[in-house]
Design a protein that fits this description.
This protein is an alpha/beta fold and 231 residues long. It contains three helices and 16 strands. The longest helix has 15 residues. The mean pLDDT is 96.
Length: 231
């Protein structure tokens, strides 16, 4: 996934009302959209270097979007919308092992009455649903974790994936770690035990779990290495 425009660097001041963040750019303070509903635990330290994108849309109220936070010299992608773009690019370019002979890739596909999964894939053998989760949390060196807050939406998606599996869909969840300093991943059971229990149940119902980290460049963020899932 390439950035639409060159990112702008600044210094983090504060996050508030969930979707707002104040950023210092040179001697000016701007309010940027914070596209992340999680707690962003461990990242919101005043003075952290950040990177923003600037919208080309003249009608948009908040011109800037918070894309990356650097914490302890590690870049972390915090824009949850970027996760799907990174995975979509990877699927189109056959960068994710396990998906072969794909005939169709359809984002945001409806399942049931009130659920949309991030991707539907059609191969010459299977119908596949994929749900993508953006991961930023790392409380222990080399270990990424999800979620960073209780996630009712994430719990719902797991239960819906189980339903899809029982209707003969192949189901996957991709934990996309938008950082490159982790070599393993696990569920943060202490943060959301209900989510952890649901995932264990789903794995027993044929849910496939894939974990990848990301590589950062001045042009964008791309899928990097598959990392170990610690059950």
């Amino acid at each position: 996934m390439n950035f639409e425009n060159k990112l702008i660097s600044g210094l983090f001041i504060k996050r508030y009302k969930r979707f707002f963040s104040d950023i210092r750019i040179n001697n000016k303070i701007v309010t940027a959209h914070c596209p992340n509903t999680g707690s962003m635990q461990g990242l919101l330290n005043k003075g952290n270097k950040v990177w923003l994108s600037k919208s080309n849309n003249p009608n948009r109220k908040l011109k800037y979007t918070l894309e990356i936070i650097e914490n302890n010299k590690i870049k972390v992608g915090v824009n949850t919308h970027s996760a799907n773009k990174i995975v979509f690019h990877s699927l189109k370019n056959n960068l994710i092992k396990g998906f072969k002979n794909i005939l169709e890739i359809k984002p945001e596909t409806k399942f049931g009455n009130n659920t949309r999964f991030d991707f539907f894939l059609l191969s010459n053998k299977d119908k596949i649903f994929i749900e993508v989760k953006n991961v930023t949390l790392s409380r222990e060196k080399g270990l990424a974790e999800f979620p960073d807050a209780v996630t009712a939406r994430g719990l719902k998606h797991i239960n819906e994936l189980i339903k899809a599996s029982k209707k003969n869909f192949k189901v996957f969840i991709i934990y996309l770690i938008q950082r490159d300093d982790c070599n393993s991943f696990k569920i943060a059971r202490d943060i959301d035990p209900s989510y952890a229990n649901a995932l264990t149940k789903a794995v027993n119902n044929k849910l496939n779990v894939l974990c990848y980290d990301c590589k950062f460049s001045s042009k964008g963020i791309k899928l990097n290495n598959k990392i170990k899932f610690l059950k």
